[in-house]
Design goal:
The chain contains four helices and ten strands, in the order βββββαβαββαββα. By secondary structure, the protein is an alpha+beta fold. Strands 1-2-3-4-6-5 form a six-stranded mixed β-sheet. Helix 1 crosses helix 2 and helix 2 runs parallel beside helix 4. It is globular and about 55 Å long.
Amino acid sequence: MSSSAGGSDVLVRRDDQLRPVSIERSVSPYAEGSCLISFGMTKVLCSASIEEGVPSWRRGRGEGWLTAEYAMLPRATRTRNSRERDKIGGRTQEIQRLIGRSIRAMLDDFKFGEYTLKLDCDVLQADGGTRTAAITGAAVATVDAFDWLVASGKIATSPVKRRVAAVSVGVIDGVARLDLDYDQDVRAEVDMNVVMSSEGRYVEVQGTGEHGTFDRVQLDRLLDLATHGITDLAERQRVALGP
């Protein structure tokens, strides 16, 4: 199933307009939950795998765990990147932790038995916003994976209480913009990633003055833009997941 913003990416967007968004579920036949998500030219495959058992530090509690991994294919970018085989870089670690924190916010607790949900977010094509696309797609894959646990009779009810979605915002030439692509991101004076729940509450806000500073008025404008975009993304998630 898919939810699409229509057509190919446009060259000119309103300041408050998302890139074309598509969400396609169940793209990996072997994963308990999966989603291919596109934000414009950025495409991320999100797979959710259920494994029996939990890390040693959680054993014996009757509680589960949720963790995430993030990777970028070598030619996801304009020039080839080397694979992170032996040691992952600091940026990758940061993004993995962000995805894990964000998706864990979908649950009130981990009382779903000693199962581990492992999320793999693999960037197939990168044009800015890979971490926000990964979070938004991983949320859909997570819902499906826990629904699989219920349908298979392993747990009684899904622990998912809400969805999360994320989007980037930034200031370019003094103007606040929503959902930055790569060319916009590298020019941005201010760059921010915002994660929110489907209940309208913030999960995480990461904002940096890349090439300048910003004041409270600009911050409020950026948060308003992010809220607008995430509200749209949350609706697309709901449509993709169906009744």
